[in-house]
Amino acid sequence: MENSANRRIAGELDSRQNELVDYVLERQFELQPGLAESYDERQMQHCRQDVSYNLSYLTQAIKFDSTKIFLEYTAWLNALLNRLGLPTKDLINNFESIKQVLSVHLDSDAYPVVATYLDPALESLRNPDNTSSSFIEPVNPLFAQAQAFLSHILAGDRLSASSLILQLADEGQSIKSIYLNILQPVQREIGLLWQTGKITVAQEHYCTSITQLAISRLYPYIFSEHRKGKTLIATCVSGELHEIGLRMLSDIFELEGWDTWYLGANMPVKDVIKTIRDKNPDLIAISATMTFHLNRVADLIAQIRDAEIPTPIMVGGYPFNLDAELWKEVGADAYAVDAEEALSKAENLIGNK
Description:
Blueprint: H1 4-15, H2 17-31, H3 41-63, H4 67-83, H5 88-105, H6 111-126, H7 143-154, H8 158-170, H9 175-195, H10 201-222, E1 231-236, H11 244-255, E2 259-264, H12 269-279, E3 283-287, H13 294-306, E4 313-316, H14 318-322, H15 326-329, E5 334-335, H16 339-350
Parallel strand pairs: 1-2, 1-3, 3-4, 4-5
């Protein structure tokens, strides 16, 4: 669970955020003379909001003791700013300003903790790792088909994308293999393309909608499988709107004979707990894509525990894939990187229940 010192520091950063934003902006404007005068009121408001976001992500990283999630946020933010024509040195100045302000306005024992998160981020900006990567790897047994599906959805060709998936199913390719070797890695690739600035938010949303259409065309194959008498409840936390990964996980569990209650995106805590009580599942799966929703994951798990519900809880999603130890910090029983690993770990968690 959360480190008590980190939790205390994160609480202070959170409660003093507005005050700290003012100090950071003051320091950054000292580092960049003339910058403040070049902003109109609207731009200044955006600037304040950006500093607030940076402090919020730093606070999350400290609270959940994960340098990795702040490093990933830094890389994403730098790519976004570069795409908007803003140089990396501006972000370095901002992080240096945050560092200098916190060194003055935090207790002497708190600042060294904060520095362990800020220093690696600054180092990554000064010496970036430009190694390219992809979630669609040549070792994938359906590599060519995954590449073709990606090309179709990037081109906005819904018909060709769906036809490719249905043809594979009709030819006898296992539905599980289609999910694990095409739909899952391609959707992750789309997220990576957005994160690195190669596609826009609108393109990412449209590509996701095509993947969802392809998934819906496979449902006649999914729900005809044998049953195991095991039940999964799968949910996103309140405010989390990214749910396609969780949908795919639920479908894979259905393929393996589980009965699934897929609650989807943006679920209020009270409704999640009521459904758990009503359905008495063997396993609860909670997904989060946005790092700033980690607080809500931890809160949902805490409220499930407070309700004296003994069901094992597994978490997954983008921030947990960044830091494989993060599941412990939110109070879960396990974490899975993808649907296949989730199945394996589910069997270990529930045993012969």
